[in-house]
Design brief:
By secondary structure, the protein is mainly alpha-helical. Helix content is 35%, strand content 7%.
Length: 507
């Protein structure tokens, strides 16, 4: 999830997750249903779920511990202690060099606070302090924004330049990754950063974190209030920092609603409620009451019109986590039913799973289950229409746990959520082996450098069975980019939040 998540690819092309596609994608046969493998039914659980921060399933204890070990390892890959830094979003071999997406780091911050040990709170504060430092040290803007992504460690870009030493450039400014096109500020990314800072304020009561979140909220309201038909907030600004993205994302407005309601609560400034209402109105206008799901947002070229060409998972689960309104909770079931998938090694076309191994969950969008051919910017990989998106599967588990209903047909939301989380834990123990992170053997500061140009990807081996890969096999999202079998901070953090019963939109 990410709110403006870029392409994860070993190639040199980079697109944005939330550039809405207005042309219809090629439609072919849909992927197989989830089947019995996921084991979503079983003995009924107690109506009251565990308290936030407690395991929702005792069998997940080892998986959760290993997932925190993964976050710690990645966080300490380049700097240690209380030095300012962000976490590299993917393993070295992903081709994204040391890219640290703001969205992923906001998730990691909240995940650390999901189990607020002394060390986890310290780590959350390091991420929060780094976000505040970034706010204050942009090369051009001091208006509360953060950009899409920054350097976590030293790297040399494709073609031999430029080189980045890490988060802090030689001139003392924040190292945002303009060569990848990550110069813009997406409303969703800024909102997630703000949400994470509110969580940190609620835990520490250090006012600087609330002030940082307020500055982010003010940036959204000042630069991105929509004048189009559905209101709410537009997509943010492009890489030049000033050109407005005119389309609006349901996901972004879900994030804004959550942030603005928390700001109203913690600042006791009721004006945030009106800003939240604007986001709420946009989100609810995107609901399809006939088919009971949420549209992705408005069209790029026609922002007064709804984009009806692609139906993603995230808006249909996040809306309940943020709004908490039961008259929309059928959208959770829409995602579980229409985006369910099972990837089977040796059976699913283009599967990368070991023969005979299978894993179930949900995928990114309806188009992920239909598209054929090569995934954009993937280096030639073809779409696995049965691939599981593990971050989205954790979204679904978190939404089911938040809803926490029993069903007339037997079982409960809790049973279903635990089934999904066990599938993710299975993948944690099976996929992503041999991947590395951190400093390499490059003689110039251990930087990452494309092996095709004389460098190396290889850093320190990640702890075994620790991080969650983004996808069971490479797949096409339908938004012009793919997800791949690379260990991912975002997927791991969502797994931790769901496994510990934490709703990131709530404090």
């Amino acid at each position: 999830m990410s709110s403006d998540q870029p392409v994860e690819s070993a190639s040199r092309g980079w697109l944005s997750r939330r550039r809405f596609i207005t042309a219809s994608a090629v439609a072919v046969a849909a992927a197989a249903p989830i089947g019995a493998a996921i084991g979503l039914t079983g003995t009924a659980s107690a109506t009251d779920g565990p308290e936030p921060g407690e395991l929702v399933d005792g069998r997940l204890g080892g998986s959760v511990n290993r997932a925190f070990s993964y976050l710690n390892f990645v966080m300490d890959a380049y700097k240690k202690g209380n030095e300012l830094r962000l976490l590299q979003s993917y393993n070295n071999e992903s081709g994204l060099l040391t890219t640290a997406f703001v969205y992923d780091n906001a998730l990691a911050l909240i995940a650390y606070l999901s189990r607020p040990s002394k060390d986890n709170v310290r780590r959350a504060k390091v991420i929060g302090d780094s976000l505040l430092w970034i706010q204050a040290n942009d090369e051009r803007f001091t208006d509360g924004r953060v950009r899409q992504a920054y350097a976590a460690g030293p790297m040399l870009f494709y073609g031999g330049s430029p080189s980045f030493p890490g988060l802090v450039r030689e001139d003392g400014k924040a190292a945002f990754l303009w060569p990848f096109g990550f110069s813009g500020s997406a409303v969703g990314d800024v909102a997630w950063a703000g949400l994470s800072l509110v969580h940190l304020y609620a835990r520490t009561r250090e006012k600087k974190y609330l002030d940082g979140a307020v500055a982010m909220g003010n940036w959204i309201a000042t630069t991105s209030t929509s004048t189009h038909a559905f209101g709410g907030y537009v997509g943010g600004v492009q890489g030049d920092g000033t050109t407005v993205q005119p389309w609006s994302s349901t996901e972004h407005n879900i994030d804004c609603y959550g942030l603005f309601k928390l700001l109203a609560r913690f600042t006791r400034d009721s004006s945030w409620n009106a800003k939240a209402a604007s986001a709420h109105n946009f989100v609810t206008a995107m609901y399809n009451p006939t088919d009971k799901f949420f549209y992705t947002g408005t069209q790029t070229a026609a922002p007064d019109l709804i984009n009806k060409d692609i139906f993603p998972e995230d808006v249909n689960t996040w809306q309940f986590l943020s709004l908490g309104e039961h008259h929309f909770d059928d959208a959770i079931d829409w995602a579980a039913t229409n985006l369910n998938t099972t990837d089977v090694g040796g059976v699913s076309a283009n599967s990368q799973l070991p023969a005979g191994y299978q894993v179930s969950g949900v995928t990114f969008s309806d188009q992920s289950k239909k598209l054929t051919g090569v995934i954009p910017n993937s280096g030639g990989r073809s779409n696995d229409r049965d691939a599981v998106w593990f971050e989205g599967t954790a979204h679904l588990a978190a939404a089911l746990l938040a809803r926490n209903e029993r069903h007339k047909t037997g079982g409960s939301d809790g049973d279903r959520a635990r089934g999904y989380l066990r599938q993710i834990a299975s993948a944690q123990g099976t996929l992503g082996g041999g991947q590395t992170v951190g400093l390499t053997s490059d003689p110039n500061g251990g930087r990452l450098f494309d092996p095709g140009e004389g460098g190396t990807w290889t850093g320190s081996p990640l702890p075994p069975n620790s991080g969650i890969v983004a996808a069971s096999s490479a797949f096409d999202t339908g938004f012009g980019f793919g997800y791949f079998q690379n260990q991912h901070i975002g997927a791991t953090s969502w797994f931790l939040m769901a496994a510990l019963g934490v709703n990131p939109y709530r404090v």
